[in-house]
Amino acid sequence: MPNTTVNPDKASKGLNHPKRSVRKIVRRLGLSLLAVLLLGVLVFLLVPSPVAPAKWIAPAAPSFQEAGPWKQNNKLSSAELVTDAAHFPEFITFDKEGQLYAGDSDGKIYKVPFDAAGNPQQAQIFADTKGTPNGLKFDASGNLIVTDIQRGLLSIDPSGNIEVLADHVNGGPIYLANEHDIAQDGSIYFSDTSNYGRVMFKEMAENKPHGRLLKYDPKTKQTTVLLDHLYFANGVALSADEDFVLVAESYHYQLTRYWLKGPKKGTSDIFADNIAGFPDNITRDEQGHFWVGIFTTRLAFVDQMHSNPWLAGNMAKIPQALLNGASAPVKHGLVAEYSPQGELMDSWHDPDGSLYGITTAVSHNEYLYIGTAPGGSQGVHRVALTK
């Protein structure tokens, strides 16, 4: 018989051959994927940025751990829900009867009455702008003046009928009407946030001013530009004497003051700077103090990006949808209180993040009412004004 003895070394090699083939395929596949990835990175870096970022060395963010008015506390942690009918109540105002009004991002404006004991009752729909109502405030005639980021400056009568007051200025569009305040003579001061027309991360990466402060005159029905070149113009509030108007520049962490009276009339300066986050809306209380909602505390990667235009330019190439999570508000509720002279009096925190993404803080009848925007917590909340 022929010799059928099998060499064990050869058998072992034969059995292992398929495994070696698989390993080779895996290695080749891995190298191919790496090559594709490196090519993709190279192409990404070579593609021109949609913006030419301006370098800015942002001031170091205030510490929440050190003693001082920014020191962390839990004053907002006890906030109670007033209504969740408006999921994201960007702004809050009250009529002469003390009823609360809040707009939602879907266009609806809700009215919330209170009983004799001050308890909120069921919310009712007051109007629907078919846009996105941000700023709300009643004029002397009882009309609700609204800054709608899609439709411009609106007036809504007590029956809910809507009139567009202004959607153009100087022959061009009002891009993003955001917030406003109304003077005793009926003049309306409001922000046009950015000529980008919507909130975009690449504007933040660009770090150039695209916002404006506008004025609407109800007598002439004309709109004029008071200030331009603002870094994301946001909240607006008049001083008690109406000698100046404030506008928040969210992307530079500051409040800018535009003088309406006195020797500085027609000029502007910085009212408050190095805010511990992105300031949103501004309201004034009966003592003349200003309350500032801070949508998010400072984002370290944003400050780092501003100091490096190359990095900022490449960040601007990333699709907006992929950056929404990275730029989401920090889960730390924050409100700042300033004196009429611009001194930081106090800060109100919710470090646990039950209430965050704060846009508005309104002092009313011994409560601080809190509004938020998409990305933050939902509903109108309030906390007692006892310190």
Automatic annotation (TrEMBL):
Coiled coil: none annotated. InterPro entries: 6-blade_b-propeller_TolB-like, Strictosidine_synth_cons-reg. GO terms for molecular function: hydrolase activity. Belongs to the strictosidine synthase family. PANTHER family: ADIPOCYTE PLASMA MEMBRANE-ASSOCIATED PROTEIN HEMOMUCIN-RELATED (PTHR10426:SF88), STRICTOSIDINE SYNTHASE-RELATED (PTHR10426). Residues 179-263 form the Strictosidine synthase conserved region domain. The keyword Flavoprotein does not apply. Keywords: Glycoprotein, Phosphoprotein. This is Gluconolactonase.
